[in-house]
Amino acid sequence: MLFKTRLLSLYYNDYYLPLGTHPTKRPSVRAVFVACVLVASLVVNLVVLIKHYNRFISPLDMYQELKDYPLVDADAAHSMALPEAHGENAIVTTLYSDAYAPAVAALGHSIRRTNTTVTRLIVLYLPSQVSPRALCVASSSGFVPHAVERIAPPHNGSGITPRFGDQYTKLALWSLDTLAPPVRALVYIDADCLALRPFDELFALPYALAAVPDVYGDARGFTTSVNAGVLVVRPDSRLFAAMLRALPAARFPPAMAEQAFLNQFFATDVLRLPYAYNGNLALKARSPRVWDGIRGEMRVMHYTLVKPFVSRTWGAVPLERLPERVAEAAEEKKGLFREEMTLWGRTWEETSVVYARSIDQCRSLRDSAESR
Length: 372
What we know:
Organism: Phlebiopsis gigantea (strain 11061_1 CR5-6)
CATH class: Alpha Beta
Keywords: Membrane, Transferase, Transmembrane, Transmembrane helix
Protein name: Glycosyltransferase family 8 protein
Number of strands: 10
GO molecular function, one term: transferase activity
Shape: globular
């Protein structure tokens, strides 16, 4: 009996728990993992909410179509306009490869349609990279070719976007005061643009550089940096030499090539122009309301995000295939730029008809720059 009582005592001492309590167990690995996921999810959601309610609001997000006045005061522009003196005003573009030849031709035709008072058109080209046939096509609508030496990227091109490797050659714009007759004022327009309306008022600007603020597709919208697709320039060969000297030492993001350099070099001195002078397709992608607001006054349309005259790999498109390429480009970006692609296609069709004789003569020329 005593032995039995002892056993019961040991049993209850070891296993007895007060009513309402439970044995203590360590949490499982799975439970710890689930708890961590829940905490992380809560933190992420809080961060997203805070950023949403405190995010940077771009002026592009606040845009309203309120104006009822013209972009340019016609009387003021007329009084400022300088008479065309011996072709000292010029419209200039560039050609670094055969792929952009039809774009230069279409740009030339679009400029002539605006009835601008400036009749001197110049295309800067690289003889080692542009074939006789392509140069002929590019100049068919009125651009006069002017050969220039390639300006190589600084630091052996480290960090540059590959397709921008030739873009530093654009700095040669400031050397055109050495031509005969000299160019005193010029409007530079990238080949991937169309002129929609005259912009003669720009030639009266007294600044070394004027340009339109750049546009981004993200929350920034636009910054104080300018886009180099349309530039108003006062050529000065001394300034050109100073730019070349500064190029190796200047600190700027290399990916955007000459555009980033120009923003660093001119910094506080560049005159910023209204968006209408550089209708960057990125603006339509970022803010369709702003695009619609400036479309009626747009002077130049800039085909940045989609180019209807080159392949998707930036290669040349045969002239006979351009209509097909335009149709393809119209469907890119879910058809966002269908209207703009159609406009370029119509302009090229007009170009190929108006300058058919010149373009036909180009077909018999060599199609390789290396065969020069």
